[in-house]
Amino acid sequence: MPRSPRLTGRVVRVLVCIEKKTFVTQEVAEVPVTFEGIEGDRHAGHTRPADVRTPWYPKGTPIRNTRQLSLVSSEELALVADTLGIPEVLASWLGANLELVGIPRLTQLPPGSRVFFPQDAVLAVEGDNDPCTGPGKVIESHHPGHEKLASRFVKAAWERRGLVAWVDRPGVIRAGDEVQVMLPKPVTYSLPTE
Predict the structure, then answer these.
(1) Is the CB of residue 123 less than 8 Å from the CB of residue 114?
(2) Residue 2 has what pLDDT?
(3) What is the pLDDT of residues 157-182, one digit of tens each?
(4) Distance in angstroms (rounded) separating the CA atoms of residues 186 and 99
(5) CA-CA distance, 161 to 168, in Å (whole number)?
(6) What is the pLDDT of residues 82-136, one digit of tens each?
């Protein structure tokens, strides 16, 4: 692994979304990842259709899939639950593929960060995963009696919702794996002055 600032964490859970009608994921012991993502997962593929996150393309236009996997932090899930006043928010309710622990402010990792796993897999971070009401509705269904959880989730999960990433190198990801996070070099860019 190249030398650069690094962080160490651990995989708590590996999850896959097999049912196409929902984004809720199910826990598995391990998954092989290919350049298309997790085989059988609803977010797998080299391409995906453009949507509200890519307004510069007409909706449905095939674009590169940089959202193959979703990563969340155990610590951030606990903060979201605490903010919402509920006992827990599970990674599966958010449609996450990986729940990690030990990486401070996971959602704040910059694009270009790399997550290295012991069995060759490497994920490239695309960016943070903005919260929306979809997962909030799932949370609300698990905590009846707590008002407006779906809409409150968006604010509670802001900058705590986790990341999206794509497979930079195929391999296997297992629950319990220690992971190394390599941060990208800092970039300085300034526009020319006239």
Answers:
(1) yes
(2) 47
(3) 999 999 999 999 999 999 999 999 99
(4) 26
(5) 22
(6) 999 999 999 999 999 999 999 999 999 999 999 999 999 999 999 999 888 889 9
Q: How far apart are CA 124 and CA 64, in angstroms?
A: 14
Round to whole Å and give the CA distance between 53 and 42: 17
Confidence (pTM): 0.90
Amino acid letter, residue 105: R
CB count within 10 Å of CB 165 equals 27
- The answer to whether 67 touches 42, Cβ cutoff 8 Å, is no
Phi and psi for 142 in degrees, rounded to 5?
Answer: -90, -10
Distance CA 164, CA 136 (A): 18
The pair of structure tokens assigned to 102 is 């030990």
Which residues of 95-136 form beta strands (DSSP E)? 98-101, 114-116, 122-128
